[in-house]
Amino acid sequence: MRENLNSGRAFLAVLLPILLGSSAADALAQARGRSLPVEDMVRQADVIGVATVEGATVREESRNGLICTDFRLSFSEVWKGDPGREFTLVKPGGQLANGQKTTVPGHEFVLKPGEPVVVFASPSSLGNHNIIGLRQGLYRLGSGENPQVYRVSEYPLKAGASSSVTLKSLKDEVWRALGRPVESPSAPS
């Protein structure tokens, strides 16, 4: 029985991203607990940057019946691509006003309005964007001038207590993967 449940979860973890536009390889990597390297996420993403969650709407997707949560983001920094004026990041799962709820393994994270995030996203066939690697291409930001960043895949509900990755080091890694020169810190005046 447990094997069937685990097989079912692995199947959902692979099928749902495909329905939403992510690759099967990314889904399998996430289902098996492997982290995607930043270079791979940079290569796959069409939009990368720092954004703020403006709001969230739960809806039923009319084309496949899946309950989804749409997060509206506004970008303060764009590292790759063009998010346009209105950017929607979709997550499978959520709860409708009538109480109907869907929970999808690997997508149990919560984002709150006003929360800053770093997002690696690719277009979805449903007209919005998906997170690269299920949820690996989404980071929470800590506080401070050069905040620590936390992968949502490891911290689904809130930022962690300590991280070896800062916003600057993540940005530098993205810049290197894009073949751009890494920005030098400003000299004090």
Described by strand count, sense and barrel closure, the largest sheet is:
7 strands, antiparallel
In helices, the fraction of residues equals: 10-25%
Ranges where pLDDT stays below 50 over 5 or more residues in a row are: 1-32
Shape by Cα distribution: globular
Number of helices: 4
Strand content: 25-35%
Mean pLDDT: 82
Secondary-structure class: alpha+beta
- Report the radius of gyration as a whole number of Å: 17 Å
User: H/E element string?
Assistant: HHHEEEEEEEEEH
Strands, count: 9
Number of domains: 1
Distance between the termini: 66 Å
Question: Could you please describe the fold and organization of this structure?
Answer:
- With 189 residues, the chain is α+β, with helices and mostly antiparallel strands.
- The chain has one domain.
- The chain is built from four helices and nine strands, in the order αααβββββββββα.
- The protein has helices spanning 2-20, 24-31, 38-44, 167-178; strands spanning 47-60, 67-80, 87-92, 94-95, 101-102, 116-123, 129-131, 138-141, 149-151.
- Strands 1, 2, 3, 6, 7, 8 and 9 form a seven-stranded antiparallel sheet that branches. A two-stranded antiparallel ribbon has the order 4-5.
- α1 (2-20) packs antiparallel against α2 (24-31).
- The termini are far apart.
- 32% of the residues are buried.
- Residues 1-32 have low confidence and may be disordered.
